[in-house]
Design brief:
The complex is a heterodimer of chains A (537) and B (366). Chain A is α+β, with helices and mostly antiparallel strands and 537 residues long. Chain A has helices at residues 3-12, 19-24, 36-46, 79-91, 106-114, 126-134, 181-191, 223-235, 244-251, 268-276, 297-300, 311-340, 348-358, 365-385, 388-408, 414-428, 433-471; strands spanning 53-59, 67-73, 120-123, 138-142, 148-151, 197-204, 210-217, 263-265, 280-284, 290-293, 473-474, 477-478. Chain B is mainly α. The chains are: A alpha+beta (537), B mainly alpha (366).
Amino acid sequence: MFKKWKKIIKKAFVKPHNESQAIGRGESKETVSTDLDKNMRHLKAVFDRCTDIIFREFEAAIGGGVKIAMVYIDGLVNKEMLTEDLVKTLMYDVASLNSSASVSDPAGYLSRRIIAFTEVKLQDNLLDAVNSVLSGETVLFVDGVSKAFALSTQDWVQRAVTEPATENVVRGPREGFTENLQTNYTLIRRRIKSSRLKFETMKIGAITKTAVSIGYLEGIVNNKIVDEVRNRLQRIDIDGILESGYIEEYIEDAPMTVFPTVQATERPDKVAGGLLEGQVVILVDTTPFALLVPVTFPQLLQASEDYYLRWPFASFIRFIRFVTLNIALLAPPLYIAITTYHQEMLPTPLLISIAAAREGVPFPAFVEAMLMETTFEVLREAGVRLPKAVGQAVSIVGALVIGDAAVSAGLVSPAMVIIVALTAISSFSLPSYFGAFSLRILRFPLMALAAALGLFGVMAGLLALLIHLCSLRSFGVPYISPLAPTSWRDLKDMFFRMPWWSMFTRPRMTGSKEPARQDYMQKPRPPRRRPGGGSGK
Amino acid sequence: MKKDEKVSSIQMLFLLVTTVTVTGFLFVPSITAKFASRDGWISVAVGGTLFGIIVALVCTKLGLYYPDKSVVEYAPELVGRFGGKLIGLLYIFFFMHTNAIIVREFGDFLVTAFLPETPLLVFNSIVVLVAAYAVYNGMEVLCRMNQFLFPLFIAAFSFIVFLLTENISFDNFLPLMENGVKPVIWGSMVPGAWRGEILLMLMFLPFLNQPREAGKTLITAVFVIGFFLTLTAATSIAVFGPLLTQNMVFPVLELARYVSLGHFLERLEAVVIIVWVAGVAVKVAAFYLAAVLGTAQWLNIKDYRPLVYPVGIFILLYSAALFENSRELVDFLATVFAPYAYFFELIIPLGLLAVALIRKRGGQKQ
């Protein structure tokens, strides 16, 4: 049916830009020439009007003053290192070297003996050299050698590793991912010291050429999921990736749902935990948010702290979280349904006090609730956007307007204020900010259903929601998976968090390749004789 | 067909249990009490279960001749093109008709018990819409949804029965069978017809990932259903006595109203209704899926999805036009429904099985 439209749309959006054509105007495949001047002319043409690119030419102290040129971006390289280790070495120190007249492989000789850098790449192609310069490497050309040397001199201003902004814990590591991909690798590698931890990197974004990396634990992860992630990433064709959110929208299973089927997290310990359970992580350069797939809805309700606290506390918190999940979604709809249709369900004293509170309120419960919920969402959004200095003013205005003035002016009832406050606090108690988002949105249609059909409407809405949740999948894994389809052993880590020594297996859906994660019979028990108690006192 | 969709035996078991129990526990106690008075629970426990087991055995035996086909598909192979297509059509009609009755039961119940001023069609159309969404998403989603809801059903059910224990008086059961066995047998006709709804397996067998376990699944389902229905019937007789029970339309609802815990937990019928709405949505979806699947197979259409909405509209309109009022509905359930259902649940499958046995078709895959 839509074939015709597809054709029209395709015509309208002709396949854009190919970077290599834009740069070299057809000369892109040009190889590095032995003539230094020719190379430099080419590069200078490519980097025309790029004031941040530095070209430096000098003569080395070997080979009778062979001409050398280096190209780098000011600000992306470590200049001290360049001066000390490269320029000084080549201009003074190599003079002491006994440079014999002819070397059969000058490029190899240079990289082996003279250029004192840990990472040196030899490049034949000028386009590669250009890309190296752009990614912060220093590219070195030597007259008479048909290779370019790309030196890893990257060093730019970075944000330090700080506590993540979204998922705070009381107990647990305080490190969060940063915008730098290399730092993020190390944050994960520090936690998983295994050669089975693999990272595959690719460049996505025709212009931005953002490094995107897939990480997984070989042997634990389901290879089909890795292949699927790789395929979906390779299909992405876009000019630029500025945040992992771009990637998320391209690789989702269900693009038209309010529920996130990809988990974004700032916590390296959460990623490490996910990798150990067979999840795949997608790291994107220039963003502190890593993506974990596949993810299920119950996982969005789990915080990494659940695994660090002792299990009775963690289980209690899990239980509270299921309560707050229901409050966040259902408190306003239930309030509307009960006060509008089913007053008989309330105990009489409660009914009387609610009715007394609602006396004089000019709106029906639905309008009242919509008004307050919208006000709250506005305040919340304002609180996020405003500069920190003004933020306090907003909270004061919010508290006064919502909490006091609206009630004393008789616009809303105090009961409604309580409901909204309860809803707000509950939705903040959910660990995944992005999972809580979906509940925030769904609350509004449920409120409308409650106003139209009472409890029956709420129930019908919840059933449709349940069907929707059941129909979702995240990389092949059913979205509410330990619940339906039921996996009894995975329920140990669901409503409750059972003790670590009792969770023998990885989750069935992602970790079935190597299910056992520990030995049985590790329940600690006191030794027969107390240590140190044998002295017979 | 989406034959690549597979569900496990336990999911199928849950689906069948929900499907049969959810309307059964509302209507069966009062209907059986009409026939068998205080022995109604025996009718449910023994007679219904026996009939259920027979249906289960026949369905399994017949289905396993063609483990990857439904009755609509293999009937033409067994009894010839014309006869087979006719049987297929009859079954499609049966599923649609039964579904229309269920939708009507649902709407009538809600209008009677819950929102008396809302038009019947509102409830009917919403439940059909929700079920259509489930059917559109397929068997796997339906089963998963039911698997999620099933523990909630059990919890709500046990909660109410548990809270009623102080009101139960076992004297209401005595004397056992004072009028002989006859009323008990008559009383077991209706619960038997209900239990026979497991004939959905004739359509759903190809979805099982282990078709060999179909028999075990069905018989377990019959017993689990029997347990819940018997418990319901017995509780309402034990609490209200046979006379009150047979004069109530929905004894379970009255049971829930009866619960009172410290003058705080009262009027629990809301719980019953909420749970019941969810269960009926599953049941309607199951019959709906059978009807849509059957229609698609009957017409040799690869994908059943385009049929979901036409069939839904048919069911919806039929449900509104079927009965004048809810008394007529209960009367139909008590008198006509049992023999009508027996025809589809036992007689046709038995006939087909006989043909299959005689012709030794299917190569005896046992």
